[in-house]
Design brief:
Blueprint lengths: L2 E3 L8 E2 L6 E5 L3 H12 L3 E5 L17 E2 L1 H4 L5 H19 L7 E2 L3 E4 L5 H17 L7 E4 H7 L9 E5 L3 E3 L1 H17 L3 E4 L9 E4 L9 E3 L13 E11 L9 E3 L6 E5 L4 E5 L13 H14 L7 E12 L6 E3 L5 E5 L5 H18 L3 H6 L2 E3 L1
Parallel strand pairs: 2-12, 3-4, 3-13, 4-11, 7-15, 13-20, 19-21
Antiparallel strand pairs: 1-12, 5-10, 6-10, 7-9, 8-9, 14-17, 14-18, 15-16, 16-17, 19-20
Helix pairs in contact: 1-6, 1-8, 3-8
Length: 382
């Protein structure tokens, strides 16, 4: 049987057997874990490889506020991402309900506030959201709040802000709880003998042998490596983000609050047990070193300016990670190689759009259809 090889002539690629029930997933970040579980639930046998360990230390998903805020994000991204985010708002409850472990998921809306010095930036932000609503009336329109309206939603912010905006259907989840829950479900499939987990094994496409006559057959290899695929995806780059987790029982925020900031989108997201995620910076550099003094000061100062009780909080984590970003800052699915699917470019919108990316990929796996991807305007390379 004729084969093609992506490897160097003198290398020895691993054979990917022709049995359609076998699949390989590269990368065990958010997309890799979601994809692996979806394939397993479809009866496939899966080998999952990751360059790091089970704690997802190399994944951008570990360093995130995990906001599900499509309308708020509409001020800085394209309509397709907003629509994918709306899809995710409905799909995340289904995905999490199917997991055996608890994952914090909240849909109590997003509160947007600003200090007087940033009123002009807030006006611009509001206008951008109104433009999005005009293009897509099905999207919710931001509710304008006065000081009393803010106090009614968040009593702890009483008298601190005079104007605000409210997006009632938006939400958030706990990214670290989710990654752990996904990991534990993977281990349950491993115990059944249907999954092999290969931690600390850095693999690339050239490490596998793929049959050349399977262009119409099932996808056998799913590349979800994010920046790990940089050598095979021209233009892929990392955009640095920094996130701080605080334990601050004296604050008592009940929903994610977005503070208008002149340099980058800034959320303060309350998780369970008085934990708050403050993030995230967005720096156009591929650098995974420790958090900078400047960014740390900006994030903590912003939190303190929202509520002075943050000054008594305790820093639990300070994390940095590079987000996989394509040249247009938009996601993409690549189907150009037989039997291979590549998913990449989730940028800062990983948790927002991951369910939509997953469902677009599965629609192709199940029915070789791109209807859902086309409805989002998602770029698909064939």
């Amino acid at each position: 049987m004729k084969h093609f090889y992506l490897s160097k002539p003198n290398s020895r690629p691993m054979s990917l057997m022709s049995n359609p029930s076998n699949a390989i997933v590269l990368g065990a970040g958010l997309m890799g874990r979601l994809m692996s579980l979806a394939l397993l639930k479809r009866g496939r046998r899966v080998d999952l490889y990751d360059a790091q360990g089970a704690n997802a230390s190399g994944s951008a998903a570990l360093v995130a506020a995990a906001m599900l805020a499509p309308m708020a994000e509409s001020a800085i991204t394209e309509m397709g991402v907003v629509q994918m985010g709306r899809h995710g708002l409905h799909r995340w409850p289904e995905i999490i309900k199917d997991l055996q472990d608890h994952v914090f998921l909240q849909q109590k809306g997003t509160l947007i506030v600003w200090h007087a010095a940033d009123a002009h930036e807030a006006q611009r932000f509001h206008q951008l959201m109104d433009q999005t609503h005009a293009k897509e009336p099905a999207l919710e329109k931001a509710q304008v709040l006065n000081a009393e309206g803010i106090q009614a939603l968040e009593p702890t912010l009483a008298h601190r802000f005079q104007r605000g905006l409210y997006l009632p259907s938006e939400g958030q989840l706990d990214n670290q709880q989710l990654l752990i829950a996904l990991e534990r479900d993977l281990y349950r499939f491993e115990a059944q003998g249907r999954l092999q987990l290969h931690w600390h094994q850095r693999k690339a496409l050239e490490d596998f042998e793929l049959e050349s006559d399977q262009s119409a057959g099932p996808i056998k290899l799913f590349d979800c490596r994010g920046l790990g695929a940089k050598a095979q995806w021209p233009g892929l780059r990392g955009v640095r983000g920094e996130v701080i987790r605080l334990h601050a029982p004296g604050v008592e925020l009940s929903r994610p609050t977005r503070l208008i900031h002149p340099r980058y989108p800034l959320y303060i997201a309350p998780k369970e047990n008085d934990l708050y995620v403050i993030g995230a910076t967005e720096i156009e550099v591929e650098d995974n070193s420790e958090a900078s003094v400047r960014s740390t000061l900006e994030l903590l100062t912003a939190a303190y300016s929202l509520h002075p009780a943050f000054a008594e909080g305790r820093i639990v984590q300070m994390n940095t990670q590079n987000r996989p970003t394509l040249t247009d800052n938009l996601p993409c699915i690549d189907l150009s190689s037989p039997s291979i699917m590549k998913l990449n470019g989730l940028y800062r919108h990983g948790f927002l759009i991951a369910p939509a990316m997953l469902d677009c990929a599965l629609e192709w796996v199940d029915a070789q259809s791109l209807q859902l991807a086309q409805s989002f305007g998602l770029r698909v390379i064939q």
